[in-house]
Amino acid sequence: MYELSRMKFNTGPPSIELEDPVCPTQCSWHESGSHSTTLPAAFLPTAFTILTSAAPTAVPPISSLPSELLIEIFTTCSLTGDWHIPLTLSKLIISSPCIWQIIVVLESRRTISSIRTQAELWVARSSPLPFNRLLPIMSCFFPHIARWMRCTTSLSDLTLSSPRRILHHLDILVKHPFEDLVGEDEDEMAFFSCGTAAYRHISMKTVTTKLPHAEMVNPLLFTSLDIAETPYEHSIRSPDLLRFLAHCPNLEHLYFHGFANGEDPLDAPPPAVALPRLHTLLLDEICNQRSILSHLYLPALRELHLRHINVDYPVQPYHVSEEGDSDDESCDFSQSPHSDLHTGMGLRKLLSRSRPPLELLDMDLSDMRTKDFRWVFDRLQDLKQFSIVGSDMSDSVVSLFAPVACGDGEGEEQNGEQMRVRLPKLSSLRLYSCQQFSGDALVEALSARVGYTDRATPDATLSTVVISNCSNFTPGNTQELSWHLDDRLHVS
Q1: The 404-405 sheet, strands edge to edge
Q2: Are strands 296-297 and 464-468 parallel, antiparallel or unpaired?
Q3: For residue range 209-265, what is the model confidence (pLDDT) as tens digits?
Q4: Which of 373-383 are b and which e, b meaning 16 or more Cβ less than 10 Å from the residue's Cβ?
Q5: Distance of alpha carbon 125 from alpha carbon 121, whole angstroms
Q6: Is a pLDDT exceeding 60 seen at residue 2?
Q7: How far is CA 9 from CA 41, 59, 78, in A?
Q8: What angle do the packed helices 439-456 and 475-485 form, to 10 degrees?
Q9: pLDDT-wise least confident of 148-152, 196-200, 222-226, 446-450
Q10: Poorest-confidence range of 89-103, 289-303, 334-348, 453-467?
Q11: What is the pLDDT confidence band of residue 455, given thresholds at 50, 70 and 90?
């Protein structure tokens, strides 16, 4: 018998046992009487059909299964790191690199030499495919970073002598499984450090073909995380991303650069994930923004950047209908109605769940319906900076910046009427390439706003207004608004 880590090649006639012949949930291959491997439920329909098609008195051996199915079975079993195969299949297993792309270190008490031996074998067997599971291995060592002395990879040699170390930034590039397989430096793992002699920030960069399964990763105590996808038809699904984020409890900055492919309808709601320290969130070029935003609890969020989320084609409907999903009563024009709905509904759920002290909202080629702008603006009491690029916002949205009458007695009196403004702390407004609203509507809304806030709340009034490449904002509009804003207005 050959044994390395938890992988065993055993002799003896194979047999199969179905724990529940009527509704099988688990299937075990038994070798030499005492060893077994659980067959994942995802493969049970196919395997169950094949195995039960034989006569009841003659159960076929495992080797009678098609090679393709065997490879799929053992590739999935490799996720657990606890699987056993018969000697008769060793040739197939050794000659199938995809089975060896994933390495799992199950026992933390193992020696470094045994882990290294295991890793070297897995690297050799997985060639020429990209190696896919270095981060779970390293996560075993991150909780003990205070004991690190030296960490060496082919791209970095990190020697640590400072008494205090903290995990700072983790950079993950998710690549196509067959993209740039050979000769690319960025296919390596690298470590970096910065700081003083007494205090060091440790950062890490790694490349993988998919995010590690959450159950394979120890807590990653980095404070900053950047995940970037390369163009590939199978984007990171929101449940996988959220489960991974659940293992990053110390995050303060999160940047997710996706690739705008639609997400298949979800069978069940993704898990809700709490990131209590997250200060800054950036979502870029994705189509599953609703599912992500709707399942994050971010009570400390202060900056939200939504970029390149607009798409002009239909996207899959959300897995459940929620209040606000109805059509926009304003019936305003939009080039991206489907993504507008998902962005707006995601923001609604995020703000309802988290109630964050959001101070900056940056929307670059990311839009919402008119009813979503109204809902969001009514609830962002701490917002100081709002920037939007390429929006189809109408005059109905622009009018939301103007003072409105209120009957609760909390506003300031103007012309004998109690008034208030949405976004009461807004000091910076930037509008770029917005072609639908009229210049007259913007002049009316902003002149009324500063006329009210300059008097009622001079410490919380507009100090910067940028209007750039908005075709319906004319030179006449510029001159008229300048009377109210003076040098606070910047037009280009």
Answers
A1: 404-405, 417-420, 412-414
A2: unpaired
A3: 788 776 667 788 889 999 998 876 567 889 999 999 998 999 999 999 987 666 777
A4: bbbbbeebeeb
A5: 6
A6: no
A7: 23, 22, 14
A8: 0
A9: 148-152
A10: 89-103
A11: very high
For 335-488, strand residue ranges (E) read 360-364, 385-389, 404-405, 412-414, 417-420, 428-432, 464-468
**Of 365, 259, 262, nearest to 313 (Cα)?**
262
Q: State the DSSP H helix or E strand holding residue 34, giving kind and residue range, or none if neither.
A: none
Q: Report how far residue 294's alpha carbon sits from residue 273's, in angstroms, rounded to the nearest whole number.
A: 10
Helix-helix angle 337-354:370-377, to 10 degrees = 20
What is the rounded distance in angstroms from the CA atom of residue 452 to the CA atom of residue 430? 20
Among candidates 62, 212, 84, which has minimal Cα distance to 137?
212
pLDDT digits (tens, 9 = 90+) for 202-212: 788 888 778 87
Q: Structure tokens of 365?
A: 């080629």
Please list, in sequence order, all residues whose beta carbon lies within 8 angstroms of the beta carbon of residue 107, skipping any fewer than 6 positions away: none
Q: Which residues pair with 465 in a beta bridge?
A: 429, 489
Strand order in the sheet with 428-432: 190-195, 199-208, 164-174, 224-229, 253-257, 280-284, 303-307, 360-364, 385-389, 428-432, 464-468, 489-491
Residue 111 confidence class, pLDDT cut points 50, 70, 90: low
DSSP 8-state code for residue 104: -
- Minimal CA–CA distance to 258: which of 316, 209, 309? 309
- Contacts of residue 261, Cβ cutoff 8 Å, sequence gap at least 6: 232, 233, 234, 235, 287
Q: What's the pLDDT at 102?
A: 67
What's the pLDDT score for residue 131? 54
How many Å apart are CA 437 and CA 393, to the nearest integer?
6
Taking a C-beta distance cutoff of 8 angstroms, is the pair 320, 269 a contact?
yes
Q: Give the residue from 245, 273, 97, 101 showing the smallest Cα distance to 172.
A: 245
Q: Rounded to two decimals, what is the model's pTM? A: 0.71
Whether the CB-CB separation of 444 and 451 falls below 8 Å is answered with no
Amino acid identity at 355: R
What CA–CA distances, in Å, run from 211 to 169, 203, 224, 345? 16, 18, 16, 26
Count the alpha carbons within 13 Å of 406 in the hemisphere toward its beta carbon: 14
Q: 489 and 465 in contact (C-beta within 8 Å)?
A: yes
- Which positions ≥6 away from 77 have C-beta within 8 Å? 37, 38, 39, 40, 83
Closest among 354, 344, 294, 289 to 320, alpha carbons compared: 294
User: Is 80 exceeded by the pLDDT of residue 88?
Assistant: no
